[in-house]
Design brief:
Layout (H helix, E strand, L loop, with lengths): L6 E3 L5 E3 L3 E2 L5 H14 L3 E3 L7 H11 L7 E6 L6 H15 L4 E6 L7 H13 L3 E7 L3 H10 L6 E5 L7 H9 L3 E5 L11 H10 L3 H11 L3 E2 L6 H8 L8 H8 L11 H4 L1
Parallel strand pairs: 3-4, 4-5, 5-6, 6-7, 7-8, 8-9, 9-10
Antiparallel strand pairs: 1-2
Helix pairs in contact: 1-2, 1-9, 2-3, 3-4, 7-8
Organism: Emticicia agri
GO molecular function, one term: oxidoreductase activity, acting on the CH-OH group of donors, NAD or NADP as acceptor
InterPro entries: AKR (IPR020471), Aldo/ket_reductase_CS (IPR018170), NAD(P)_OxRdtase_dom_sf (IPR036812), NADP_OxRdtase_dom (IPR023210)
């Protein structure tokens, strides 16, 4: 399958694929094989995290693939227990060593931990200014966290990765990020399969002769939202990548927006931290 995917330009000019592979809850050989299959399929963005405990396997797959490093976009994140200025600097070194890469394309604050997030962001800014990271960003940051960060930050996050789907349509956050040139990125876009039999979604799939998953991913891409569905199944990997040959109409996009029911798979960041 040809790599025909869409790219987005981050606020600092770095190019990032809009569609990527998330590798949460994949371990050892499963993670390595999934990334190899994904790269063979055409994916060029791979999203991992220290918390996932598979950075070494992701790095192995990247090297085995034989793909030029400059053509890949690798994201990792600082773990909650590693937050704070000095601890984050050390954690980044550990992640880089496990990945066995010269640099990371995107490094994220994994969660807005109350007492450490400000210092963690300062560490990311330092790593970015030193040229060790191509771009920096945050994850699970809703508007209040972004507002707080803006007070002291010298760099605005280039990416904000949050749970986002037609069933958790965070329109205010999407608009906020667009206005500030923060690229929104969706994890758990497929709601971990919980809404694949929704009659409204099935009607869209039938109309466009696509699968429910493909409708959701195409919807996100047309909103300008980067999306990182997770799968270690080769057929699903190919299915999730086969979303570049059709377009959802404006009317149907509005209809899919109406699917929102504030359904969260992961904890609400506002309640957790």
């Amino acid at each position: 399958m040809q790599n025909q995917q869409l790219m987005t330009s981050l606020s600092n000019g770095v190019q990032m694929p809009l569609l990527g592979l998330g590798v949460y809850d994949m371990y050892k050989q499963e993670a390595e094989q999934a990334v190899l299959w994904a790269l063979e399929t055409g994916y060029r963005l791979i999203d991992t995290a220290s918390m996932y405990r598979n950075e070494a396997e992701i790095g192995n797959a990247v090297r085995q693939s034989g793909i030029n490093r400059n053509d890949l976009f690798i994201t990792t994140k600082v773990n909650n227990t590693d937050q704070g200025y000095e601890k984050t600097l050390k954690a980044f070194d550990v992640s880089l060593q496990k990945l066995n890469l010269d640099y990371v394309d995107l490094y994220l604050v994994h969660w807005p931990i109350k007492f450490t997030r400000k210092f963690t962001w300062k560490a990311l800014e330092r790593l970015y200014h030193e040229g060790r990271i191509k771009a920096i960003g945050v994850a699970n940051y809703l508007i209040p966290f972004l507002e707080e960060l803006q007070i002291e930050a010298t760099e605005i996050p280039m990416v904000n990765q949050v749970e986002f789907s037609p069933y958790l349509y965070l329109e205010d956050l999407l608009n906020y990020c667009k206005e500030r040139k923060i690229q929104l990125q969706a994890y758990s876009p497929l709601v971990r399969g919980q809404r694949m039999s929704d009659p409204k979604l099935l009607s869209m799939a039938e109309k466009y002769k696509k699968t429910p998953a493909q409708i959701i991913l195409r919807w996100a891409l047309q909103l300008g939202v980067s999306t990182i569905p997770k799968s270690s199944n080769l057929d699903r990997l190919k299915e999730n990548f086969d979303v570049f040959d059709f377009e959802i109409s404006e009317q149907d996009m509005a209809y899919i927006n109406s699917f929102n029911e504030n359904l969260r798979i992961v904890e609400d960041p506002m309640e957790l931290y």
